[in-house]
Amino acid sequence: MVIRAALFDMDGTIWDAPIDWLTVRHEIGVPANGLSIYEQLMDMPSRERAQGIRILEHHEALGAENGTLIPGTIDLLQYLKEADIKCALITNNSRRSVERVLERNPLSFDAVLSRDDGALKPDPQAFLSALEQLHVSPQETIAIGDAHFDLIASDRAGIAQFILVGNRPWTSELIPAGVPHHKVADLVEAREIIARLLHQSR
User: Fold this and answer.
1) What 3 state SS string does 103-153 have?
2) CA–CA distance from 139 to each of 69, 77, 145 (Å)?
3) What are the pLDDT digits (tens) for 101-138?
4) For residues 162 and 160, what is the distance between their CA atoms, to the nearest angstrom?
5) Do residue 154 and residue 187 come from a single domain?
6) Which domain holds residue 104?
7) What's the CATH number where 177 sits?
8) What is the distance between the alpha carbons of residues 191 and 72, in angstroms, rounded to a whole number?
9) Domain check: are 47 and 142 in the same one?
10) What total of structural domains would you count in the chain?
11) What does the alpha-carbon distance between residue 48 and residue 90 come to, in Å, rounded to a whole number?
12) Same domain? 138 vs 149
């Protein structure tokens, strides 16, 4: 297996946004049931949906403005660039928030997809669309994320390797059993896994 691409989640993976998502869910009125907030908003009546979207976008904007890069992000992206690995950022966050994060930080991706660009994770199309842009197959790809959405999307897309970074306690029970993945504490450990995989592929 030759690795030619790496797909990154944003919030909780490379970006530490000061958002308590459980509190946001409570404020909007949706449960932590394994579905994304936005997906549940789409099932609400129009008035409640509009109010919920305003609440969500408010918190996302604060997260984009007040968050910080997770340690190891820049080093990992630089390492992948030097290894000639194409990198994509794929998030269920809004395009506006993603652009604000990228404006504030020296990050370079070969493709960027937000929820405004199509399917939301765990729909595998979120990853497949990025790979189509990169002209890379799922079998030549690593995905890196912090939540069950990322792992499920990666598995459904047929991506070769998945790295689960610092999984949040409340989502641990949502990680599907039997889906192969590497669990790491941080991006430094993730880089070690990727280095090993790259060495094995060459």
Assistant:
1) HHCCCCCCEEECHHHCCCCCCCHHHHHHHHHHCCCHHHEEEEECCHHHHHH
2) 29, 20, 17
3) 999 998 999 999 999 998 999 999 999 999 999 999 99
4) 7
5) yes
6) 5-16+69-200
7) 3.40.50.1000
8) 9
9) no
10) 2
11) 27
12) yes
Given this model, what pLDDT does residue 49 score? 95
pLDDT digits (tens, 9 = 90+) for 64-105: 999 999 999 999 999 999 999 999 999 999 999 999 999 999
Q: Residue 152 has which token pair? A: 């499920």
Verify that 140 and 165 share a domain, yes or no. yes
Q: What is the pLDDT of residue 170?
A: 66
User: Encoding tokens for residue 17?
Assistant: 């946004």
Residues 169 and 128 in one domain: yes
Q: What amino acid occupies position 188?
A: V
CA 87 vs CA 27, 65, 78, 110, 116: distances in Å: 34, 23, 10, 6, 19
pLDDT tens per residue, range 13-35: 999 999 998 899 999 999 988 88
